[in-house]
Amino acid sequence: MRHIMAESLAPTDGIRDYLAVQERKSLLRFLTCGSVDDGKSTLIGRLLSDTKQIFEDQLSALERDSRKHGTTGDDVDFALLVDGLEAEREQGITIDVAYRFFATPKRKFIVADTPGHEQYTRNMATGASTADLAIVLIDARQGVLRQTRRHSIIASLLGIRHIVLAVNKIDLVGFDKAVFERIIEDYRQFSHQLGFETIVPIPMSARYGDNVSSRSDKTEWYSGPTLIEHLETVSVDDAVVELPFRFPVQYVNRPNLDFRGFAGTIASGSVSTGDEVVVAKSGKSAHVRRIVSHGGDLSQAVAGQATTLVLDDEVEVSRGNMLVSPAARPQVADQFAANIVWFDEHALLPGRSYILRTETDQTSATVTDLKYRVNVNDFAHEAAKSLEMNEVGICNISTRAPIAFDTFAENRTTGAFILIDRITNATVGAGMILHSLRRAENIHWQSLDVGKHGRADLKNQRPAVFWFTGLSGSGKSTIANLFEKKLFATGRHTYILDGDNVRHGLNRDLGFTDADRVENIRRVAEVARLMADAGLIVIVSFISPFRAERRMARELMATGEFVEVFVDTPFEECARRDPKGLYARALNGEIKNFTGVDSPYEAPENPEIHLKTLGKSAEEMVEALELWLNERDIAENQYDSGGGI
Amino acid sequence: MNIALTHLQRLEAESIHIFREVAAAFAKPVMLYSVGKDSSVLMHLAMKAFYPAKPPFPFLHVDTTWKFREMIAFRDQMAQKLGFDLLVHVNEDGVRDNINPFDHGSNTHTHVMKTVALRQALDKYGFDAAFGGARRDEEKSRAKERIFSFRNAQHVWDPKNQRPEMWKIFNTRIATGESIRVFPLSNWTELDIWQYILQEDIPIVPLYFAKERPVVERDGMLILRDDDRMELRPGETVENRLVRFRTLGCYPLTGAIESDADTLEAIVGEMLTARTSERQGRLIDRDEAGSMEKKKREGYF
User: Fold this and answer.
1) Which among A327, A484, B47, B121 is placed 20 to 30 Å from A108, CA to CA?
2) pLDDT tens readout for residues A384-402
3) Is residue A319 very low, low, confident or very high in pLDDT (cuts 50, 70, 90)?
């Protein structure tokens, strides 16, 4: 831009017009990548120099530095313009990504100069994550190298769709067309599966400027654009404004009781006042009442804008949730498949817990399955137990809490995440979501107007799940039955889920292996949860021998709602009672997997209620249960009237 | 409404996003307020990011006691006008030892009164995130720095081992005692800053506008003699010249340029045809090659 001004030096009153033109220029973000010594930094230095972005004091500093550190003899070493760290200048390599800015009469550019060494791949990925185009440099003497492939794969995974294949140092192969064409062929061979929309090969010499900003007279066989011409005209519009509305909530702005605004950056689509929006994780909907901005309210806001929305309804939304279009919602799931690029010297291990961060959400996550690693040379899918630094793989991921997302292919903003080490807090990996792993991916939470508390209030009670666990014949069913009768007599609304009865219907397909027992409990726990949601007092009478499944059932229920009742009758007593004659048969070996005989029973460690039945009547047991229930209800009523909600 | 955002709208949105991210993720953020034009833009963006609320963090000015008097007056005036919480920190040890740019040189002065002072202030208040107005186009080592730039408990920057920074997903996790320096203006250029000041009508210190000022020519720079702590060397004279400043710092270390640009438009026009970078007026960058990186590693902003 500077040289333009120099030519037509505008008087002061022309400045605003000039700036208005600058404002309308589009922006292209790109990176330079490729192997070590392919000339990335030199190319950027050349671009900055050719577009008159280098000031005189910088140029004189550069000439000084070139004599000290330069690798180009008496010529100015443009690489020193971008290799800004001392370690880089001393070693003559690029360690970290540098961001530089330049403009031409047609466009503005932010260029990320990224390191070629494999060791610093994570810094290349950093530069690529915000770029729309990659210049892949190739030393004409070397051809396509391993790092060329690695960088191309990473660029592709990170969503870059436009490649400039800069066949550099063409002067060192005598401006040979055949070399150029062979490299193009090699590159196309391997890159056809990377999904690039455009690959534009340009023969150039970054050091001498051939085909960078001006056409070289030494490559008359080349009829394509110069690098600058191409960068000025390539269309990279990804039209995020056309995508469904996504608004990751970043910050809840609540300066006083009268204002509650949801602040964030619109990831895609647009929003107008009056629009209906849905809270992704709860399915609740509201309308946009105001789009708040410092200079006055707006009527519409679009992708890329950082804004503040005020809704017409007091829906529950906090950081990490998303306001979305009701017609096209994101997925909400806790299991999904993703491409992972690994950055850390400590390998990715399936089963280890990491912190997963999306743009605004955070939860813990584990890789449940490393499906394969991608060989960067031939794209072969290789079985792997771990992902080492700079490797790429496809994984299944399970998060502790569900997150709202789109696939990365659909939306680069809402489909990406990073993984963070819990102990060092290092950013250890980047992920691009491929798809949800739940078959329920298209089933969204339907928000219902009548809630659990309303249903329970109508019944004048508080929901609870009394989970009776104990050996077969310990007295669970007898006590449960009597307990329900007592509750029923006092006007409570109840239901008993009995192990034997449920196995006649809902769970008739399940046997008694450990896996089937786990599924048996899972289903019953889900049914109990639905019944508690309906406002009922649920009594579950199941042997439920494993602690892990009882814990799973507990975690399904609201806090304080799950009441573990250990019906504690010694094995000998149960075997002596043997009401169904099962112990006799099991001890004879006629029944397999019988709890207490050849299948373990894991007694509860901290049950809410511990019923020791020996020498006691069923009535005495039920009194203990009633007492517990009454005390809970009194305690909760006091809490409610005191605390409010 | 135009669907495509303009260049400045994009930059503004990115900066606001960064402000909000820090406010949401950190326990005790602070904004470093240096009173210069970049700080003015930063402050304006902070006001926008949290509107209608005020920024949920204080503004900290590290006063070396050698700032231009007009800067201090402007600072106090802005604090009053915008109603933000202003903290001023001075390294009292340095004051006691009478550390000054004339006797101790720019290096020692900047280290004691700026770098050490900043570390003192951050430790004193226990800030875990600090916003600064640095831009990547200013200097080579800045061009390498992340937007969220990690500092260990000793405030040290390790440029060879920066965290990857993917998309707009920032890793905001730190251990106790560690902190993050945050640069919302990373992707702005000097032209963007001026253009934004013009567009948004942002107040800036009058020293940026050309005016007759008493200057002394010293070491090839025009130094404004802001008070009589600056003693004249033999042969030096104070002349009134029409000058302005492209960048502001400690007055004995900041060179003025001869200019008649007394409006924002004229300043932008002058900048567009400038043949030297803005940091040329800063003595501290010239001490030695790579000096900015060295200062940054020690905790300078």
Assistant:
1) B47
2) 888 999 999 999 998 988 9
3) very high
Same domain, A255 and A282: yes
d(CA B265, CA B72): 25
**Mean pLDDT of all residues in A167-172:** 94
Range of the domain at A203: 2-233
How much is the pLDDT for B283?
54
Same domain for A394 and A292: no
- The CA–CA distances, whole Å, from B134 to A262, A430, A500, B119, B141 equal 28, 27, 71, 17, 11
A417 and B47 within 8 Å at the Cβ level: the answer is: no
Q: Which residue of A has its CA nearest to B281?
A: A57
> Domain B7-193+290-298 falls in which CATH fold?
Rossmann fold (3.40.50)
Look up residue B215 and give its two tokens. Answer: 């200057």
Is residue A295 in a domain? yes
**Based on the domain organization, do A354 and A306 belong to the same domain?**
no
The Cα A4–Cα A104 span in angstroms is 9
Angle, alpha carbons B211-B213-B215 (nearest 5°) = 140
**A35 Cα distance to chain centroid:** 30
User: Over 90: is that where the pLDDT of A313 sits?
Assistant: no
CATH of the domain at A411: 2.40.30.10
A544 labelled catalytic = yes
Could you identify the residue written with the tokens 């056809």?
A192
Burial of A238: CB neighbours in 10 Å, binned 0-12, 13-18, 19+: middle
Chain A residue whose CA is closest to B260: A12
Phi, psi of A453 (to 5 degrees): -65, -40
Domain count, chain A: 4
Residues of A in contact with B289 (CB under 8 A): 61, 64-65, 68
Q: Are A550 and A469 in contact (CB under 8 A)?
A: yes
Ranges of residues in chain B with a pLDDT under 50 are 1-2, 286-289
Q: Report the alpha-carbon distance of residue A365 to residue A353 in Å, rounded.
A: 6
Provide the token pair at A426. Answer: 């290092």
Angstrom distance (rounded) from CA A390 to CA A341:
7
Q: Do A99 and B143 touch (CB under 8 A)?
A: yes
Query: Torsions phi, psi of A180, nearest 5?
Result: -55, -50
**DSSP strand pairing (A537-541 vs A494-498):** parallel
Q: How far apart are CA A375 and CA A391, in angstroms?
A: 8
Q: Looking at A235, A541, A544, A641, which residue is catalytic?
A: A544
- Domain closes at, from A233, A261, A280: A233
Backbone φ, ψ for residue B103 (5° rounding) = -85, -30
pTM score over 0.90: no
Residues of chain B with CATH 3.40.50.620: 7-193+290-298
Kindly tell me if the per-residue pLDDT of A300 is higher than 90.
yes
Query: Does the beta-carbon distance from A319 to B159 stay under 8 Å?
Result: no
Same-domain status, A582 and A472: yes
CATH number at residue A523: 3.40.50.300
CB < 8 Å to B56, chain A: none
Q: What is the mean pLDDT of residues A485-505?
A: 89
The answer to whether position A447 is within a domain reads: no
Same domain (yes/no): A513, A632: yes
Q: What is the pLDDT of residue A640?
A: 45
Q: What is the pLDDT of residues A497-536, one digit of tens each?
A: 988 888 888 888 888 776 677 778 888 998 999 999 999 9
Alpha carbon distance A429, A354 (integer Å): 10
- Within 183-212 of A, beta carbons closer than 8 Å to B belong to none
Residue A372 has pLDDT above 80, yes or no: yes
Q: In 10 A of CB A72, how many CB atoms?
A: 13
Residue among B169, B190, B286 with most chain A CBs within 10 A, to mutate:
B169
A286 neighbors A313 (Cβ within 8 angstroms):
yes
